[in-house]
Specification:
The structure is a single chain. By secondary structure, this protein is an alpha+beta fold. Helix content is about 25%, strand content about 20%. A six-stranded antiparallel beta sheet has the order 1-6-2-3-4-5, with no helix packed on it. α1 (about 5-15) packs antiparallel against α2 (about 20-40).
């Protein structure tokens, strides 16, 4: 399946046909309004639901692998850990999947990792 931007499709169609004479353009606009637009509107949509949780609202469970996001849109896999060595200031720190440690304030939001892809072995 390929996702498309239906609004952009309508714009492009109208733009391509706009060089036609006025009568033809009028007819095309009517076809777009009466046929194409309702067909597009009836198609299923897929919403991109990203469930980012601001760190200021809630933190993940300790050692739970999550996606971490900083103020510069960097995203890494990591976990919140209890600081027992005073390596970083504060009671907790973030550790990414490469073992790098970060101050808790370096990351602004987190979200659970998506579920892994389940291969349907019957269709292989």
């Amino acid at each position: 399946m390929r996702l498309i931007d239906a609004d952009k499709l309508c714009e492009d169609l109208l733009e391509r046909w706009s060089i036609a004479d006025t009568r033809k353009e009028e007819l095309i606009r009517q076809v777009m309004a009466d046929i194409v637009t309702p067909i597009i509107a009836s198609q299923p949509t897929i919403e991109n639901k990203q469930n980012w949780t601001p760190c200021s609202e809630k933190m993940p469970n300790l050692s739970q692998e999550v996606l971490m996001s900083d103020e510069f849109d960097t995203v890494r896999v990591g976990s919140l850990e209890k600081n027992i060595d005073d390596y970083l200031p504060g009671d907790y720190y973030w550790e990414d999947s490469h073992g790098y440690l970060y101050d808790v304030d370096d990351w602004v939001a987190w979200m659970p990792l998506p579920k892994s892809y389940k291969l349907n072995r019957k269709n292989r």
